[in-house]
Amino acid sequence: MIDTEGIMKIGLDLANWKKIPLDSAVHIKGKNIKKVLLTIDVTVAELMLAKSIQCDAVIGHHPLGTAALNFHKVFDRHIDYMIEHKVPIGIAKSAVKKLKDKTELRSHSSIYNDIVSAAKILKMPLVNIHQPCDEYMRKVILDKINSGKIKYVSDIVTSIEELPEFRNADTKVKVRYGSTKNEAGQWSLVIAAGTNGGFPIAKAYFEHGVTTVIYLHIDYNDLTRMYEEKLKGNLIVLGHLAGDSIGLNALANKLEDKNIEVVKIGVIPNMK
């Protein structure tokens, strides 16, 4: 048996982190947990389902409650990534500020406490673990790309598609901008910084020596702006659910090692 703080620690251990990032939280504490429901997004429906099948806690991935309000505060990791790729710090901070302002404005208008309130009424312990699972996913993908020879954009695509979650997904890895036939050049895996960097961050990379940017997902308007401004580079989009499933499968495995029964909802299996 385990408590909610122990569940969070297992999540942090996936990334070798000690501190809980601001996009993750123990929302409703619980003890003596033997069975959990694990899902990407938590709604009242998942809470009710967990109650009906006698789960002791619900673990979500995406931010909830105050973690959703604080979501934009983890985006500064984009700055670290860009600096590693020789993007000037002033340009990096400016690009990230646009992303943070957009997300903070949206979250400020959100109904942020409904799921947590429902969990309280149902007396259902509730945790969400976002960035630590994404960091684990980033390392898995990074190791996979680095394990082979990369010359063309297609080499990156082929490499990532060999990972079980991507191979089993109905969505496929897509080159949304540029071409699989182009040389990959210098590439950057832009994952585990909260969300994708959108147009401003992709532009900053392309204008400072990075030829290929790898996102988990991208908004239509951001992609349209890339075409309108005719940026020079390649953008690979991996697929949101497939990527998130890597971290959640790893979390489930660790919980099962502790003899916790895990019921997964919507997570793509990692069977070979």
Question: Any overview of this molecule?
Answer:
This protein has helices at 4-15, 44-52, 65-69, 77-84, 89-108, 114-122, 131-146, 153-161, 164-168, 198-206, 220-228, 240-257; strands at residues 25-28, 35-39, 57-60, 126-128, 174-177, 187-189, 212-215, 234-237, 261-265. The chain is an alpha/beta fold and 272 residues long. Strand 6, helix 10 (198-206) and strand 7 form a beta-alpha-beta unit. Helix 1 packs across helix 12 (240-257), helix 4 packs antiparallel against helix 5 and helix 7 packs across helix 12 (240-257). The longest helix is centred in the middle third of the chain and has 20 residues, at 89-108. The radius of gyration is 19 Å and the shape is globular. The relative contact order is 0.18. The mean pLDDT is 97.
Key phrases:
272 residues; alpha/beta; 5-stranded mixed β-sheet
